[in-house]
Design a protein that fits this description.
Organism: Pukyongiella litopenaei
GO molecular function, one term: oxidoreductase activity, acting on the aldehyde or oxo group of donors, NAD or NADP as acceptor
Strand order of the largest sheet: 5-4-3-6-7
Distance between the termini: 16 Å
CATH architecture of the largest domain: 3-Layer(aba) Sandwich
Number of domains: 2
Largest sheet: 5 strands, parallel
Protein name: Aldehyde dehydrogenase family protein
Number of strands: 15
Keywords: Oxidoreductase
């Protein structure tokens, strides 16, 4: 029923004008910003992941900041290239089915809803079961604001009781036009195999290289700020910091000064056993504080410790601590020279292929070599990787869906934006024939607004009474399709 309702909303919304779209987007941004703190508190209470203050920051960044970034990107108005005799008409996807993770539940709901609004699509959100209550509340709040601003009912919806069979059922529905999958590898793979178009992402395992030319204290502050932000729940956070042997002592000192606890050999062993002693990563550590993890691992640290830094002497070995860790644990290692550092960075990044890396230093030649050799599509320079790769500490597009491209077996390599949810029909005249472009009435393709379908038992108005609305024949056809679908006759 939600998917069907979204299809009706999308059909109306695709004729809205740019002015009407921006009015709705503004209303949703205001509503989301107003409850950013409240939903952040609810998210931490429900999931146990992260830091309330940091989640509130992420929530706010996905309101006005996100809208301002894309405000001038026109995905509504037809384009005319007179010189090439081509007319381009925007075609929204229709119904977007969006998966939201437990790690960034509200920020992802805000972000994906805003992308759908700006691209004139309807969206059905499916949260992680661990964060279903706060995700549904956030979606309802945005939906109410959108409808009050003139959006059709059903434009923003959320699955309140998600389950794997239900999600798989929705993903394979012929009424879903595109899936935006943010979550675990298994769910992303399921989205790609659903039979519907999918925009999915892969896991991160960012490696940060600190060159001897870097200001070591500034680099350490960036690393600690990034790794402690929201208890390192973002997939863009640094997993390993790599430097040269000649610089490792300086790095340890600088990390301590920045608020990190640098582990000795015994502490490193305890931490490795706690985090990876079972079958894979210890899930209870996700999004917990450094002090909380240290206590469970049997390590004595100051209560003010923001990050735990286990030290692995040789980068060549396949240590478990070189894997992704969605908690404030940052592995430190060092190489004999830059060439060995490059080799290790390539090896480490393959576990988060296509994702992100960081470079600290002033050597342009080494930066270029690092960016070329490491299999990632974002390299953040002299800034925190968590915020930088996500576009909040750099000029990259702000995003909570980080495309991992060919390297990460993803369909996009850049940060997901509303432009990925629109495709364009190109009307192309022959090179040697006349083209009366002035005779094409493009103004008739959009309206200032459109009538919203009534939720539940809709009765569509007659086409003659409502421009762009459903006629009786359309309504009969939709009802027949619904009946055939229920009998299993419509595939």
């Amino acid at each position: 029923m939600k998917v069907g309702r979204a299809a009706w909303a999308a059909r109306y919304y695709r004729s809205f004008s740019r002015e009407a779209v921006l009015k709705i987007a503004e209303a949703v941004a205001r509503a989301g910003h107003a409850k950013a703190d409240e939903f952040a508190d609810q998210a931490v209470a429900e999931t146990g992941f992260g830091v309330v203050e940091h989640k509130a920051i992420k929530n706010r960044l996905c309101t006005h900041d996100l809208l301002d970034y894309y405000r001038d990107m026109d995905l509504v108005t037809p384009r005319i290239d007179a010189a090439r005799k081509i007319v381009e008409l925007p075609k929204p996807a229709g119904v977007v089915f969006a998966l939201a993770p437990a790690t960034n539940p509200v920020a992802t709901v805000y972000y994906k809803a805003m992308l759908a609004i700006l691209s004139r699509n309807a969206i059905v959100l499916s949260p992680h079961p661990v964060a279903k209550a706060v995700s549904a509340a956030a979606a309802r709040h945005l939906a109410e604001a959108a409808e009050a601003a003139g959006a059709p009912s059903g434009l923003i919806q959320c699955v309140e009781e998600p389950s794997v069979p239900l999600v798989q059922d929705i993903m394979s529905s012929d009424r879903i036009n595109v899936i935006v999958a943010t979550g675990g590898t298994a769910m992303v793979r399921a989205a790609y195999s659903s039979g519907n178009p999918a925009l999915g992402v892969g896991p991160g395992n960012a490696v940060a290289y600190v060159d001897p030319t870097a200001g070591v204290d500034a680099a350490a502050r960036c690393l600690v700020e990034s790794k402690s932000f929201d208890n390192s729940i973002l997939c863009t956070n640094e997993s390993v910091v790599l430097t040269l042997d000649s610089n490792r002592g300086n790095m340890e000192r600088a990390l301590r000064s920045a608020g990190a606890h640098v582990c000795n050999e015994a502490d490193t062993a305890r931490l490795r056993e706690y985090l990876f002693g079972g079958e894979g990563f210890t899930l209870e550590a996700i999004g917990k504080s450094a002090a909380w993890i240290a206590e469970r691992a049997g390590i004595r640290v100051a209560p003010s410790a923001r990050v735990l830094v286990p030290v692995v002497a040789a980068p060549g070995q396949d240590d478990l601590l070189f894997r992704e860790k969605l908690c404030p644990v940052l592995t430190l290692t060092s190489a004999v020279d830059f060439q060995q550092a490059l080799t290790f960075a390539r090896h480490t990044a393959r576990r988060g292929a296509g994702h992100s890396a960081a470079f600290h230093g002033e050597d342009g030649a080494r930066l270029a070599a690092f960016a070329q050799e490491v299999p990632v599509y974002r390299v953040v320079v002299n800034a925190p990787c968590s915020q930088g790769a996500a576009g909040f500490a750099t000029h990259l597009p702000p995003s909570f869906t980080i495309g991992t491209g060919f390297a990460g077996r993803s369909s996009i390599g850049e940060n997901l934006g509303p432009q990925h949810l629109v495709q364009w029909t190109q009307v192309a005249y022959g090179k040697d024939v006349p083209a009366d472009l002035d005779g094409i009435d493009l103004d008739a393709l959009t309206t200032g607004s459109a009538p919203a379908p009534v939720p539940g038992h809709e009765v569509a108005p007659d086409r003659s009474a409502t421009p762009g609305g459903f006629g009786r024949d359309d309504l009969r056809q939709l009802i027949l399709e619904e009946l055939r679908s229920l009998r299993g006759e419509l595939k």
